[in-house]
Amino acid sequence: MKRTKIKDALSMSGDNRKILIMGWVRNKRASKNLAFLAVNDGSCLHHLQVVIDFDHFDNHILDDVHTGASVAVEGKLSTSQGTGQNVELQAEDFRLLGKADPNEYPLQPKRHSLEFLREIAHLRFRTNLFGAVTRVRHAMIFAVHKFFNDKGFYNIHSPIITGSDAEGAGEMFQVTTLDLNKPPKTKDGVIDYSKDFFGKQTNLTVSGQLEAELAALAMSEVYTFGPTFRAENSNTVRHLAEFWMIEPEMAFYDINDNMDLAEEMLKYLVRYALDNCIDDLKFLEQRRTNEEKQKPQNERSAMSLLERLEFVVASDFKRITYTEAIDILIESKPNKKKKFNYPVESWGTDLQSEHERFLVEKHFKTPVIITDYPKDIKAFYMKMNEDNKTVRAMDVLFPQIGEIIGGSQREENYDMLTKRMKDMDVPEKEMWWFLETRKFGTVPHSGYGLGFERLLLFVTGLNNIRDVIPFPRTPKNAEF
RNA sequence: UCCUCCUUAGCUCAGUUGGUUUAGAGCACCUGACUGUUAAUCAGGGGGUCCUAGGUUCAAGUCCUAGAGGGGGAGCCA
Known about the structure:
The protein has 2 domains: 6-98, CATH 2.40.50.140; 128-171 and 206-467, Bira Bifunctional Protein, Domain 2 (BirA Bifunctional Protein, domain 2), CATH 3.30.930. It is globular. Helix 3 (128-150) packs across helix 5. It is 30% helix and 24% strand. The mean pLDDT is 91. By secondary structure, the protein is of the alpha+beta class. The strands form 3 sheets. It has an 8-stranded mixed beta sheet, sandwiched between helices. The protein has a 5-stranded mixed β-barrel with strand order 1-2-3-5-4. The chain starts with 5 loop residues before the first helix and ends in a 20-residue tail after the last helix. The chain has helices at 6-10, 114-119, 128-150, 209-219, 255-276, 278-293, 305-314, 322-331, 333-336, 353-364, 414-423, 432-439, 452-460; strands at residues 15-30, 34-40, 48-53, 70-79, 87-98, 154-155, 161-162, 174-175, 202-204, 221-229, 242-251, 318-321, 368-374, 390-398, 402-409, 445-451. It binds one RNA strand through strand 1, strand 2, helix 2, strand 11 and strand 15.
């Protein structure tokens, strides 16, 4: 008999049809004549209740069946006599596929701390929480491709191993096949990378943007969605050494078109989660509400998870310039009362997390897009404004997580771009291929980067980025 | 990298100003009871390198020093 997925079984009527299910036992409740197994196969959040009637089975058939064991059960799908589920499976044939010794198996039918689950990342898929996160993550991956595909964008696989440090976005992981114990040296005593695999020093990519620009300046509208790597020693709830980034790059878009696309995309993705993952989101919402009950009233969120997601889809993102943001911050209550750790005094300094949070959560109470930052605090490739002081950068700020998107209109003028590179000590020579796009048929273009895991933090309501990626890579941690 | 907090049973946690037996509870596990349970319930049982290494003391889970691991915050950013 062909296996029926539990998600499908739960949507059938209890008409005593015969089905076969396979999955992992989450919980066993046994009494003298009957036992109930909650079985989950990952196809959905909910379990299928399997009923074992000891009139038909040996009394010891469940002796080795504990939480975590894998089973195959054939039987009749019937209307449940108990409350709590519509249908249940009356077992007729029961097979234990794999035991899970309860003296060793770490998961139990109870709440575990997220810290503990991180230490058993190989098993945490078997919890309701990570099942939900995994399904939401998948749906969002799919939604990203669907959004861009439906708009006529082409997906570009940018290289994972690169020979350039794209934007000075951070420390890079070196890729080498040289023997680190005795690397070849030149006459000057420095490591001879001409002997390395690629004949030069190479690294893992920190961004696919520059390559995406090359493609956009021929294909018009492209996007990358791949892993990026940063060897920064960042120990926070919103940084990973290996994370996934979505980077659209569009020819003929100015910064306003860029903002329109970013806003439309974020709303589309959140809407997609609401439309396709409602069971998992409700579970995540409940989890978050329970967690917040432990907190004092004033630290709890004003909105539930679903309310917040609906709110973002419905609201217009507030668009202001950096200069306007500084004016608001200088005049703000917390600044005047010296409540900020970093007081806002003058134009030109970068905005701190606490300032961004104030603007989003207290002042505007809606997602905010800040544009036209001072040129000195932004990357070399961003287009200079007429004032010669600011660049056409845009950062999208979300409640709770802060910066979710960073982007800009790109500098398409060859002379201006090379001047900026000189000013900011970017090695022009290594970037010859990037500069040629400005020599041959250059056009105005724009793009941005979205940290996929940060979006997932927002959608799932979790606080720690290590809990929205299956195998987090952080400083001192690559166990799984 | 900086600041700060934490580490006691498989898990979640108590453990008073350092001092009374053999360091406790709930869950999990084992045994028994129970005719439909919902993280079942009831009774009983087994289970400990109190993170590691030093030190103070008549006496250390508790105090001190160092180290390891983890959490939260900051910076860098996505």
